[in-house]
Amino acid sequence: MQLRNQTLLTFVGAAIALFILPLIVQPFGPGWVRIIDSALLYVLLALGLNIVVGYAGLLDLGYVAFYAVGAYLFALLASPHLTNQFPALKEYFPNGLHTSLWIAIPLGAFVAGVLGVLLGAPTLKLRGDYLAIVTLGFGEIIREIVTNLNKPINFTNGAQGLSDIDSARFFGSDLNKTKEIFGIEIPGVTQYYYMFLVLVLISVFICYRLERSRIGRAWMAIREDEVAAKAMGINTRNMKLLAFGMGATFGGVSGVMFATFQRFVSPESFALNESVMIVAMVVLGGMGHIPGVIVGALLLAALPETLRYVAGPLQEMSGGRLDASILRQLLISLAMIGIMLSRPRGLWPAPEHGRKGAPKGGQA
Amino acid sequence: MDTFIQQMINGLVLGSVYALIALGYTMVYGVINLINFAHGEVLMIGAVTAWTVVTALSGTGWPGWLLMLIALLAAMVVCAILNFVIEKLAYRPLRNAPRLAPLITAMGMSLLLQTLAMIIWKPSPKPFPILLDAHLYNIGGAVINTVQILILVVTVITLFGLMFLVNKTRIGRAMRATAENPKAAALMGVNPDTVISFTFVIGAVLAALAGVMYAANLGTVQHTMGFLPGLKAFTAAVFGGIGNLAGAMVGGVLIGVIEALAAGYMGVLTGGVIGSDYKDVTAFVVLILVLTLRPQGLLGERVADRA
């Protein structure tokens, strides 16, 4: 009973801390809350990729493609671009498309999920490194398409990207507008924080349930030994497709969120570096372990961002060679190498259940 | 028809560069099963080193071919040392770790090298001087210049040199033995560490060679220049059958030719819907098709199932 009370106490404590965190941070400036917001977005992405990489053991380097799909989907459905381009559409929607998030989120999840399954289908035979390289290629293909789909008909506006995307609206309330509740001013970034937090909590719950379900166990069996899993009667093909699809839905939703948060999307945001970074978050934190993945995402997303504020003096000292973005890249790359060398299983790996005698050098 | 011949020449030259890079990939993968994501960046370091040497010596009035040779040697030495150190520090400690770990360090290393190059050489692209006299030769209405001829010749010589090295020399036999089974090789008196170091050094020398050729043909150097050719060269290595030298060569040339033809004709064939802007995608489309239809590659044995 003592222990239960303690868990409950930590739980309630964490909930309160998460709830008031932005209120404490926001007096220091909206920039800091923005950093937390984007960190939460990365947590969402990392949780999705963790399903594919962590649970099912399929190394997916094209994950950012689903993120891009979600983001562009919302960008097209909630910005003036399409109605400006196609007069016929303008006749039906004279005020623009302004698709609601209630439609966009499930739609983004669905489209990305279907795409995930489509990508998974031809790669089922591959494992490990080969899968990594094929998914990487897929991610690049999507990015090239998005970059070049501005001619002959302009769908994506090419490298310039799409702007003027709607901010998030729920029940007639625009999250981008500052509100006052009980005398406390709540700016837009803080309201976005709560929206992202809700999504992250839902995702954690989904992942937690998945991990303990038959599906989750099947994934982990595939990760540990695919042949044995097959022999035990697991339909490895369907399970792998399901992993790709499930992971992709997270990417799609994160993309929608990204679009409504930034209100601008361009192909630049979906470069390969982004995919590598999300993989790094999952692997550095501890593959297949929800708290580990969250820690990895927060660490890689938030820490380098905060450096932007100390980068100024360093930039002067180095004669302009070391600017904030270069410093950020440097730190991320060093973290990737350093953490892997010191803790190849991640910072906070999943506890191994009775695998003491298991041989090292398992599968990817 | 002129366009066709011209695109074939462009494709062959580009393909030769890809082949040179692919040889490095395929040897490293063959010996320790690691996709060395940093290989393209080693190439880039070679190219910027060469650029530094050439610009430093440009006032001496030495002939272009001599400058080129010095730059090439410098690039090779720098890359060889770099790759030797990378292998020792970043990959060797992880040889028995879970398979994802070395892959992540390789990606981290690729990012690190790019960042360091950005800090040392600044992010802006720099023109690579024309060192060899830019004589144009006419072949059936198409043109080819001296650098491009040099690239073709160097690639062929390198391939045969490597084949000799791997198939006929003692260290080559040790490499093949380690690739086959490191433990058994060790029992037979081969030191796998030496062999792996040697493989990385050879790979780096090839990357330096490719980097300088690529820069000379392209006319610029930049910290991002290694990434895409690296990726395409890996595709080439897989296409040809990874671990197979001739396969890397064939794969490289084919990828280069496919890309050049796609750049020349895709827009015409699809009525402008899919323009030449998509040429960078062709390598990946080929990759996906190859891995789905013939995972062992054109000349390789079946390895895709090897986890």
TrEMBL record, chain A:
Entry keyword set: ATP-binding, Cell membrane, Membrane, Nucleotide-binding, Transmembrane, Transmembrane helix
One term under GO cellular component: plasma membrane
Subcellular location: Cell membrane
Taxonomy, superkingdom: Bacteria
Membrane topology: Multi-pass membrane protein
InterPro entries given in the database record: ABC_transp_permease (IPR001851), LivM-like (IPR043428)
GO MF term list: ATP binding; branched-chain amino acid transmembrane transporter activity
Alphabetized PANTHER family for the sequence: HIGH-AFFINITY BRANCHED-CHAIN AMINO ACID TRANSPORT PROTEIN BRAE, HIGH-AFFINITY BRANCHED-CHAIN AMINO ACID TRANSPORT SYSTEM PERMEASE
Protein name: ABC transporter ATP-binding protein
Organism annotation: Piscinibacter gummiphilus
UniProtKB/TrEMBL annotation, chain B:
Single GO MF descriptor: L-isoleucine transmembrane transporter activity
Keyword Membrane in record: yes
The UniProt record lists the keyword Transport: yes
Pfam families per UniProt: BPD_transp_2
GO BP annotation list: D-alanine transmembrane transport; L-alanine transport; L-isoleucine import across plasma membrane
Top-rank lineage group of the source organism: Bacteria
GO cellular component, one term: plasma membrane
Keywords: Amino-acid transport, Cell inner membrane, Cell membrane, Membrane, Transmembrane, Transmembrane helix, Transport
Compartments, record wording: Cell membrane
Stated family: Belongs to the binding-protein-dependent transport system permease family. LivHM subfamily.
Name under which the protein is recorded: ABC transporter permease
Native species: Piscinibacter gummiphilus
PANTHER family per UniProt: BRANCHED-CHAIN AMINO ACID TRANSPORT SYSTEM PERMEASE PROTEIN LIVH (PTHR11795), HIGH-AFFINITY BRANCHED-CHAIN AMINO ACID TRANSPORT SYSTEM PERMEASE PROTEIN LIVH (PTHR11795:SF371)
Coiled coil ranges: none
Protein's membrane topology: Multi-pass membrane protein
